[in-house]
Amino acid sequence: SELMKVPETEIIRTLFFKGMAVNITQTLDVDTIEMIARDFDMTVETPSTQSAAIKTTEMIDVSDWESLQRRPPVVTIMGHVDHGKTTLLDSIRKTKVAQGEAGGITQHIGAYHVDVEHNGKPEQIVFLDTPGHEAFTAMRARGARVTDIAVLVVAADDGVQPQTKEAISHARAAEVPIVVAINKVDKPSANPDRIKQELTEQGLVAEDWGGETIMVPVSALRGENLDNLLEMILLVAEVEELVANPDRLAKGTVIEANLDRTKGPVATLLVQNGTLRVGNSIVAGSVFGKIRAMIDDRGQKVEAATPSFAVEILGLSDVPAAGDEFDVYESEKEARSIADQRAIEQRNTRLQQALSSRRVSLSTLSIQAQEGQLKELNLILKADVQGSVEAILGALKQLPQNEVQIRVLLASPGEITETDVDLAAASGAVVVGFNTTLASGARASADREGVDIRDYNIIYKLLDDIQGAMEGLLDPEE
Ligand code: GDP
């Protein structure tokens, strides 16, 4: 809007009539920007060195174009189980990080960087050290794009396996270039040519076979040829033209987060644009924070983190989720109010999902109770003996029921049967079992009909959960 001298509302309106609902803070892709420009009889010029960056990341917008600089590649290691992902990560780290570092103390923060000399210049590579594509896929499912290059590890004595194929599909879907590490070449049974043949069948053709995929034979265990692998990663990175603007407030992605007993909420943030600094006010997902301290992968306190680097930060008010985007704001007040706003939106979507899902479970009921929308909690109770049934009914009566009433639709001794499940499905009830088992077919039918079956063998735990749900306090994950 600023560059075009066209009011923001005008642009939003134009897009709206094309069927695209956008808001004012949203970043548009190049195709959309070009389309808008055409509508206003303007042309968009993208210097060729910068088009790659615009294409490959949602983290960079037009205002960064003037200040883009090269950044290190962020690499994820993928491959079939036991093919050597962990060993490769460890051995790159050992040979490249520990040597020459004071004490060689390393800190697990979910990512680490190595220094490599490339064409006579010092360069860096950042590895995300959660091997396996589960992490990669989970983040991608949340819309996060954190990987620039995938290293696909294939054991030379085992060949292409199901998870190898999966990893290839995931990297392709994310449009991430693949570098293959043919691992375990030290083994007598290793057959790198067979691996190349099998990979060709998957559409990855080695360069020396006339294709475009770089394949490096390595031994992760013995640390052989790792320099060559790192060199090749940098070569691919060069082609990708990875850039970011270090001269702005940082943004990026949460790659790990947890609650530390002594430090409080701790998160590792991957900076994807801008520079992150101690003292910054940030919003990660819907969590507010003011950065108290930052620690890098070598256990050092740092004051700033530039693009592609990951740091562990302290100072968040709560634990964000891996894959959440984070943004730094000019003022603490602004950051706080945005975090609050997001938290409300998140709760509303959660409620919507709970209400629209057919599944009635104690935790969805709990969310409804939290929102004051639950009036009755329907239960079907099955227990081992009549005595237990009566004891539980008696105890349920004692629970405070001024906000939400408990309605027991059926209470009897015996197994939980398909009929119980049908009744629960028809009446929006939860099935509670005490010291009892499921009759054959009951589980399948519960899964099919979306009925929550809860097993207990301690009465107070049963009562706790029911009361928790009525008060809207039950953990939504349960
Ligand atoms: P991941 O499941 O892919 O993370 O595989 P790991 O790194 O745990 O390795 C699985 C097994 O293969 C371990 O016993 C490693 O010691 C072994 N291994 C890994 N790399 C090599 C290698 O280059 N050569 C040999 N001989 N064994 C290796």
TrEMBL record:
Predominant subcellular localization, coarse grouping: cytoplasm
Subcellular location: Cytoplasm
Positions of the Tr-type G domain: 70-243
Binding of GTP, residues: 79-86, 129-133, 183-186
Gene Ontology cellular-component terms listed: cytosol
Keywords from the named record: Cytoplasm, GTP-binding, Initiation factor, Nucleotide-binding, Protein biosynthesis
GO molecular function, one term: GTPase activity
Family per similarity comment: Belongs to the TRAFAC class translation factor GTPase superfamily. Classic translation factor GTPase family. IF-2 subfamily.
Function (record text): One of the essential components for the initiation of protein synthesis. Protects formylmethionyl-tRNA from spontaneous hydrolysis and promotes its binding to the 30S ribosomal subunits. Also involved in the hydrolysis of GTP during the formation of the 70S ribosomal complex.
Protein name in UniProt: Translation initiation factor IF-2
Protein's organism: Microcystis aeruginosa PCC 7806SL
Gene: infB
